[in-house]
What we know:
Radius of gyration: 17 Å
CATH architecture: Alpha-Beta Complex
Shape: globular
CATH class: Alpha Beta
Number of strands: 10
Number of domains: 1
Distance between the termini: 39 Å
Amino acid sequence: MIEDLVSIVTPAYKAEGYVAETIRSVQAQSYRNWEMLIVEDGSPDKTAEVVASYAETDLRIRLIRQVNSGPAMARQKALDHAQGRYIAFLDSDDLWLPEKLATQLAFMTAQDAVLSFTGFRRINADGTETGRLISAPATLNYHSLLGNTAIATSTVIIDRQKSGPFNMTKTYYDDFVLWLGILKRGHLARGLDADLMRYRVLGLSVSRNKWRSMRMVWKTYRDIERLSLVRSAFAFARYAWNAWWKYRQF
């Protein structure tokens, strides 16, 4: 691992309309020591061509291509190539504010954090509407995260020197499963309550299919985390309440 290098993990599928803006938000970071690993997941559009055009002029950006395997395996492919001590996650339609990396890395150093996440705001598909601030709680442990929706993927940074090795699980909520796996080792997730990311809400976004999402959360509890029926039900009730509260208004 290269000390102080941030490896940015970005899966990309049907992202030709948004990935350029996502890349530019990384290039605008005040913290300059990063590499961006964009895994084009067998997309039928021109996602690869858009990414390649940026990779040609900025050697920190790397285009990696694979046959369509889903976001979990795209993230894993990026992890396989990552050289940095720090792993940051950024989806191909989301955006970072310019001080995101600098502010969050300073916070992680001050807090001796293994995994950190931040506040954010939602934007609509064309970026013309910005929603309210979604705050980040100060800390989450394994048990509190089970019933919480507070960690947005594109806000997360993990310090691999502190976390130890990790891999993605090929499942619907691969990100949620990863956070749980790291916290299960006894670590805390540290929340930085600062407005540093823009989460783009797309009409066909997988995460917006609430009923399917709820089924997959339940499946995560029972099939992956192996929770009892009673414990799963308790966690699910808290998760549903927190999800409603989070999405009650744009």
